[in-house]
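Appendix B. Raw example, untouched.
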Amino acid sequence: MKKITPKIVISKISEAIILALLAFITIIPIYWGIVTSLKNKNEIATYPPKVIGFNVTWSNYVRIVGQGYLRALGNSAFYSLVTIILCLILGYIAGYGFERRNFLFKKFWFSLVVIGIPLSTGCSVLLIPNYLMMMKLHMTNHIYTMPIIYATYNLPLCIWMMISGVRSLPVEIEESAKIDGCSQRYIIARLIPPIIKPSFAAAGIFIFIGAWNEYISTSVMINSRELKNVQMAIYDYMGFFGQEWGPLCAAATAAIIPILVVFTILGKQLVSGLTAGAVKG
């Protein structure tokens, strides 16, 4: 049994204090936004502001729903889901090829993948050329416009994570499956994916966040109210004459709920997915 020394106690207490401070810094803005979304205009303008003991009202949520927020929420869900499906399928196939196959200019193509990873956070530098290209192809302001853009931005990161996932799988498993009579198609489509499920989950989380939170490209590529995403809907309450804090906070609060749900469902797979392939014996 490990002996508990004063040094260990101090270290544990310090860690607990730091974690509590970080949790406080993280939670306070979210709590403040939720509280503001449940106030009317008069209570929002009250000074000093109340964080407890105020009259709760759902009028801000009723207002954003009446102004088409649910449509924007559905659009973002559709864009994100299609993006995830495209990226996981293409990323897995490419990742398997990079890890298990040798082909011409392999290092060059892999370098392009690595260079493209920062695109998953969005890239304003490519906004104008992307817009001009999409305009010439008559592909702006369509239901499929943003999934194509989002998938293009997030695919390099997905490929990189899939390479790590395939790398974590011993090649002997595939060799044994071939000896047992499994075809290459069966191995790629049905044998490997369940084994590297954490890599799929981790990649899916990052793709979802990248697609769900994207605003700049969508605001340029989409000009139809029926096709705008949730981030554009939030910015509707930030006008020239100031911010409408009640509806703004209500829209922002509703927008973070899907992210929390996704992390709750897939969060356990995140760490193992990110560390897959990190150690290769």
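End of appendix B.
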